[in-house]
Amino acid sequence: MSVHLPQHTDAPLVTPARTAKSSDGSSKTVWQLADGNQVESLSFTLGDPGPGADAIATPVQNSRGHVVCVSSQAGCNVACTFCATGLQPMRRNLTAEEIVAQVRQTRLIEERDEPTRVIFAGMGEPLLNLDEVLRAVAMLEADSGVSHISLSTMGVLPALDRLTDETSSVDLFLSLHATTDEVRTRLIPLNKANPIAKILEAGERFARTHGRLVDVSYLLFNGVNDTDADADRLIGLLDPQYFRVQLLLWNDVPGLPFTRVEDGVIRQFRDRLIAGGLSTYVMPSKARDIEGGCGQMLTEAAKEHRIKRSNMSMLPLI
Ligand code: SF4
């Protein structure tokens, strides 16, 4: 049976300011924090594509159930050039209690009883708030309403090694998104200090230490990282003993200079990776129509800032 804290315990930490329901069944909640900051979380069901889902999506087997994707920071300083959240300056780290409250409040509001998977992939880079994230992981682990915990990161060293050493409770998703440091640095500025070879080395160490595969997330952008040469370099970079590939589809963010790849290109890329020996699946996009998908989370408070940043982002990427 699920264990919940009473609602009044969490309510002062995160209060639902607004919710939006997607046509695919997922829902996004904007949470008001006690100090006036806002963050977002997304709730959806894996294994249930819903109307309008990507025809190309091939989620991994056994990945079913309720999922809550939580934020770990209000805003984000990593400033990935493809991400709406990165347009919003980092205001502060969330506390473990604020992170956990997003999960518990979602379950209460939606009257969920089935076990919930929690994914640290909302607003913020979890490894830049590692102390509180590790505390949140421990709290979630003790909550019988939570079945799995995943953490998605751009790869921050040495925090990634610390994660490996200090918890065995999370599944690791490493966001690569490019196969050369030149392109990756343009997409993810912190790649300069955390280059591909180093973060894959740390990812391999995680896989060896915990005896399970690391998912390498690869967000396909039209004309940026979607060629046969990219697929071949990815095959060369990843040891299938330690890594499998999760292909993600870009969700349009107004003002950002990227476009989504065609389904045929995705299929070709996926099939080339599989032929090269890499276990590969395509993750369905969720909540695109309510700006809750990958890279789309941006609170209203940041809209003005988006306009300023998006002017910079129109610089050619490659
Ligand atoms: S993708 Fe993640 S790390 Fe990058 S700016 Fe967005 S929230 Fe931050």
Written overview of the protein:
The chain has 9 helices and 12 strands. It has helices spanning 7-10, 96-109, 130-141, 159-166, 181-187, 196-210, 228-237, 263-275, 303-313, and strands at residues 14-21, 27-33, 38-46, 65-70, 73-74, 92-93, 116-120, 146-153, 170-175, 214-220, 243-249, 280-282. The strands form 2 sheets. The protein has a 10-stranded mixed β-sheet, covered by helices on one side. A two-stranded antiparallel sheet has the order 5-6. Helix 7 (228-237) links the parallel strand 10 (214-220) and strand 11 (243-249). It is globular, with a radius of gyration of 18 Å. The N and C termini lie far apart (52 Å). The relative contact order is 0.15. Iron/sulfur cluster binds next to loops.
